[in-house]
Amino acid sequence: MKILFIGSRLYDDIDWYVREKGIESVLTESNEEAINLDLPDQVFIVPRGMDGPKQVALMQNVDAIVPLIGIDPPLIDVAYMKEEVEREYGIPVIAANVRAVELTSNKINTKEFYREIGIATPEYQILTGPDELTIDFPVVLKQGEGQGGKDIKVARSVEDVEEYFEDFDQALCEEFIEGSEISIEVLGFSGEYVALPPIYKGETTIEGTHPLNKVKTGPCMVDGLDNNLVQHAAYTVARNLASDGIFEMDFMYSAERDQLYAIEVNTRPNGTRYLTTATCGVNSLCELVNMAIGEFSLANVSDKLEYHYSTEIPIGNYEGPLPNEPVKSFEFNDFVVHGPKGYQRVTARADSKDELKKLVEKIT
Ligand SMILES: Nc1ncnc2c1ncn2[C@@H]1O[C@H](COP(=O)(O)OP(=O)(O)O)[C@@H](O)[C@H]1O
Ligand SMILES: [Mg+2]
User: Fold this and answer.
1) CB atoms within 10 A of CB 354
2) Which of 55, 265, 335, 355 is positioned for an S-S bond with 104, CB 3.0–4.6 A?
3) Per residue in 94-151, pLDDT tens?
């Protein structure tokens, strides 16, 4: 089995798994200074875009292609490449297709999609000026594209909206939902979809603090919210996207209204994955590899399911005890450290809340 991986930045997360499976690894990367280039069997530095990876895949006669791209902008090129390579050469590309990327990479398209498939989403309007606003304050102003809280503002007054329009001439405006933020990963391949356990990412704040900067826990335990409801909503969204790979979805739950709202979908590896793995033992990046080698199925994922309490803490620079090899895996660890220096996070797990508390005290 020979797999082409596109992008080296996340490769250290799965290097151990690729070796364990005896897979021959080929990797393309556009930045010759990038990390992890010493790990795969072969590395090709190619220009940006999907032409280079496609040529390498054909030249190297690979059995499958697994893009490991954790940012939004390249996803549409990957999707076009997927459709061409699968159609013309019959090589599976484990990634979202063009329709799924178009629906999810733009938050306005995603809102319309939710409405079409009957999934509740916060009330919204598209504004081209502050005077068009009809939703009550506070409101959340966003751009169609963006991740990590980029270009997002919670507005409490007309002045706030006017200020936002100094930088933009259009906005997606949503009612502000006071409540809990929840993320969930769904794995999809060849018409099979598995919703993993939801993760709790804190309460929304009027400052619009992004979950990246909050302490998170798994599994999600929010008073009044049934996790089955989250999993079912996520499954419905994934099934309607009808595509392959990882779907990470953000939801919000308002206890006051007893209502779950869908916020956004990312069709790529994402920051929720460490907590998901800590909580249930299933690693979404390893599952991409399993999809490529024909070992992904509902039954196989169900067989792996474990039940742990987990938490993820932003820590800046980690100085605690060193994890065991493979360091980015829960295989022989009860904690994993990830993220760039200065923005590191530690994800830890244990079999009771009490043990988890002790573990966190030990390592932080
Ligand atoms: N309707 C909303 N009500 C309350 N907070 C929101 C709302 N929309 C977004 N936020 C806050 O902004 C963050 C980022 O919004 P999101 O739409 O997920 O964009 P991004 O792609 O940047 O993650 C959310 O995680 C949440 O904290
Ligand atoms: Mg988000």
Assistant:
1) 10
2) 265
3) 999 999 999 999 999 999 999 999 999 999 999 999 999 999 999 999 999 988 889 9
